[in-house]
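Session log. Operator J.P. requested a structure for one protein chain; no other inputs attached. Running the standard single-chain path with C-alpha cell output.
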Amino acid sequence: MFIRTNIKFLRKRRGRTQDEVSNFLGMKRSTFAGYENGVAEPGIEELKLFSDYFRISMDTLARIDLASLSESQIRQLEDGFDVYIKGSQLRILATTVDRQNRDNIELVAEKAKAGYKRGYADPEYIRELPVFQLPFLSPERKYRTFQISGDSMKPIPDGSFITGEFVENWEFLKKGDPCIILTKDEGLVFKLIEKDFRNKQFILHSLNREYESFAVQVEEITEIWKFIHYISSEMPEKIPLEHELFAVIANLRKDMELIKGRG
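Structure written below.
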C-alpha cells in the first residue's frame, strides 16, 4: 500500500502545505499529517477525497508507487489517462529512464517488431530494448524509435529508423500526419493517418501510390506515435515533390537573370 507516500508526494509536487490541503478537504491538519506519517490509515471516504483532489484513482493511490514513475507517466495520470479510470485500452505507458530520471528513447529494431506486438505493455520487455538519448528533443515528451521495412513509404528508404512522439489524445492528430501505429492484427505500420471517428476508424495511406489505403477500427489500435524524424544511411530514391518545385523556381530565377543581363 502506497497511500501514505503517494499523498505526500502529490502534495509536494503541487507545492501545497499540509495546512492548505487539510483545510481544502475539510479535515484537521493533525489528521492529515497522521495519514502522511503512517500513524493512521484513511478510510474509504478519505480516499475518495484524496482521489478527487489529486485527480488520481483510489486504486492507483493505493497500489502504485508514484515516486518511482517517470515524469511522462505521472503526467499521463494527471491528465486523466489513468488505467483504473479509463479502462484497459488506456494505460500507463511502459517506459525506461536514465540515471537522471529522464525518459529514454527505446529502439524497436526490425527483429524486435514481432515481440513488440506482444510485449508493448510489459515493463520487463521494454526494459530489454536498446536505449539512447537525443538532446535536441523535448524532455517533456515521450519518444520511441522504430525500424521500418518495405517501400510503402517511399521516398523514406527501407530500413530507416523512425522516431515518434507518443500520442495520448488521438483527437489532436491532423489529416495527413505520418505516424507509427501499433494494431492488434497488423502489428507496427508506418502510414499517413486520416481520422474517420464517425465510423470509429482511421484510414491509413501510403506515400507510395502503388499501395492502396485501408481502414483500421479504433478499438484495434493500441498505440500511435507521431513522426518526428528519421535516420537512414541511404539517400531517398526520389526527391520529394516540393523539392522539385523549389528546383524549378530556382532555375526560372536563373533564366530571368540571364534575360535581364542580355537586355
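Operator note: The domain at 105-231 is CATH 2.10.109.10 (Umud Fragment, subunit A).
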